[in-house]
Amino acid sequence: MITDAALDVIEHGGYDAFTVAKLARALGVAPSALYNHVSSKQDVLLWVQEDLMTKVDVSGFGVEPWAVATRRWALSYRDVFARHAPLVPVIAVMPVAGAPRTLAVYEAVAAGFADAGWPIETIVPVVVALESFIFGSALDANAPADIFDTADLAGGSPVFTAAIDAFAGSGGDYTPDAGFDAGLDAMIAGLEARLDRLRKG
Amino acid sequence: MITDAALDVIEHGGYDAFTVAKLARALGVAPSALYNHVSSKQDVLLWVQEDLMTKVDVSGFGVEPWAVATRRWALSYRDVFARHAPLVPVIAVMPVAGAPRTLAVYEAVAAGFADAGWPIETIVPVVVALESFIFGSALDANAPADIFDTADLAGGSPVFTAAIDAFAGSGGDYTPDAGFDAGLDAMIAGLEARLDRLRKG
DNA sequence: TCGAGAAAATGAACGACATTCATATGTGTC
DNA sequence: GACACATATGAATGTCGTTCATTTTCTCGA
């Protein structure tokens, strides 16, 4: 209920608009009344984050090959939090205790990894690595299209400027998706090579 | 000058303590006087970010093999911003125009990549991919040691809980470094495989 | 049906914060 | 000596999250 109203406010005006006063108004209530149900604004943000976790797609694990399931998970994970970038720094350091839906996602992922042959003690660091990449990419997805305009400093950075031009020329404007795709391909390829070695060793 | 004072305040009390009033006091000046030199607090944060960029190690590019130089760059990049996590969401979307030191880092990196044989149009997405991973890892580095305590929900997540235990058992407490190392190894391995293919094709 | 007690709502107030503004003070130049 | 300019200042503003004493509403057992 409160979580739904919070999501409404956020979707309507972004995180800048997500203020206690606005949330209260969306609920038809005075701001102070909120504190009978919530101990802080931060609390509400955690509820929102938990809610978003249900939109992360773990359906591939256990049914598709590891690389396919992992790619699907990573794509949906990034898409969800690219639209909620201000939550990323919160999630990245949030304990899973008291976050059952987040934990459920981790369980599905861990089970999928174990099924695929990852030794149990390797799962946590590998998942953390993928998550770090996903979080960083979710932030990057909000970069403006002109983030790499070198402008008047172009003369001092010939190679980089050429790289920007070549990239833009080959595919139009800058879109962060190219970076995400390149990174996801590389990381999954690197991890799969390691998994192959582990299976044989 | 202002930048130095800002870094002092931040290093002393963290980003919560970095307030206009504190910054002014550190400079021996009234808060309002600051606005004769600065157009907003955000401005100062950008200066700080620029300053931090000089601590990123690009010395390997052009002299060491690509993988070695890239690893050194990534390690120092993450270390710098792990201690300045609140800046990460700012950097991730900050245009390089007007940030000469940031641009200088990009130039060194791009030149190193080009030297190593990366086709010019592939450089931007690959650098973005690595950066995304680095930013995410910098955030993750600030996670509390008990972030993966499943606590009373352990029964519902047997595989993940086992993975946590196995990981903790094999190396003591949770440290984000394991995730960073795993991801960096995988990504560099994946990228190097692609580079080999590009060189031959 | 009544009344006690819990739960929920309210407006006023607080303290922290970034920022603005009218005003003052100093500094160097013609 | 006067003028322009940069810089400093305290008071004031508006926004925000949060607290609190008080009142209203709801629930439920006698």
UniProtKB/TrEMBL annotation, chains A, B:
Gene3D superfamilies: Tetracycline Repressor, domain 2. The keyword Transcription applies. InterPro entries: Homeodomain-like_sf (IPR009057), HTH-type_TetR-like_transc_reg (IPR050109), HTH_TetR (IPR001647), Repressor_TetR_C (IPR004111), Tet_transcr_reg_TetR (IPR003012), Tet_transcr_reg_TetR-rel_C_sf (IPR036271). Pfam families: TetR_C_1, TetR_N. Keywords: DNA-binding, Repressor, Transcription, Transcription regulation. PROSITE patterns: HTH_TETR_2. Residues 1-56 form the HTH tetR-type domain. Residues 19-38 bind DNA. The keyword Transcription applies. One of its GO terms (molecular function) is DNA-binding transcription factor activity. One of its GO terms (biological process) is response to antibiotic. PANTHER family: HTH-TYPE TRANSCRIPTIONAL REGULATOR RUTR, TRANSCRIPTIONAL REGULATORY PROTEIN. This is TetR family transcriptional regulator. It comes from Rhodococcus rhodochrous KG-21.
